[in-house]
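ok so for the tutorial part 2 we go from a plain amino acid sequence to predicted structure tokens. step 1 is just haveing the sequence, like this:
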Amino acid sequence: MSSPTHLSAAREHAVELDAYRRISHEIWDAMAPGWARRRVQLAEALTPVREWLVSELAPQPADTLLELGAGPGDTGFQAAALLGEHGRMLSTDFSPAMVEVARRSGSGLGLSNVDYRVIDAEHIDLDTDSVDGVLCQSAYMLMADPAAALGESRRVLRPGGRLALSVWGTPERNPSAAIGGRILVERGHMPPPDPAAPGAFSMASEERTRRLLAGAGFTEVRVEDVPVGFEYRDLDDYERWVIEVSGPFAAVVRALAEPERVTVKAQLAQAFVPFETARGYRVPGLALCAVAC
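step 2 — the prediction. this is what the tokens look like for a chain of 293 residues:
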């Protein structure tokens, strides 16, 4: 029997997760216009991840596929091109504003085999055994309960169906996010990240990602590191990138007083010296990609 203290802690944790979900909805709805503006830059930077995911998912003509946390939708759109007129891609996100970004992008590409829906990955409103494959690029790690989301992904997959996912690798392999976050923490603008809480690096451990997949019922899992690179014209471009696409960091940077912003930018300039190129900066990154069935 659970003790009163244990039950109280569980209730408090549930309240914290619900609060996180509400805030997350607000953040990503607010980020949607920036993601629309930066869609081409995002797609170019993440091309290696997108190609890995679609290749490993191996869509077949007439398949029904589900993309969770689709954002602008480009990963799903690449898969949709392989499905033919009898296949369907369900492009979904828990943010209605993000779904609209994907809808506009898909319409501009002339895609006719894509449906757009608001879906919470932790509670997927689809029948059991209803899709042939699930895609999820850079989203499970940000969910309040990734174990629940992965369990739902397993539930909606038909027997033999595959899940292809990516999350970010360790902070030291992703300086584009880690350096800015470290500076903001050191200067007292953000609390140190809680490794047990949702966040960009919450699934950076291959061990944890494999454990979550096994807990959801996936028995065959293959994991691979996929390198990427982010290009910025200068530090002003990087700052605008952070404000437009980086979720929780955006509000913090936007709220900095001008003298503090200058100080933070000076520290960034020093930290980014190893990434200087003739065209600005090229900052490496690493995604942890997995295919499971």
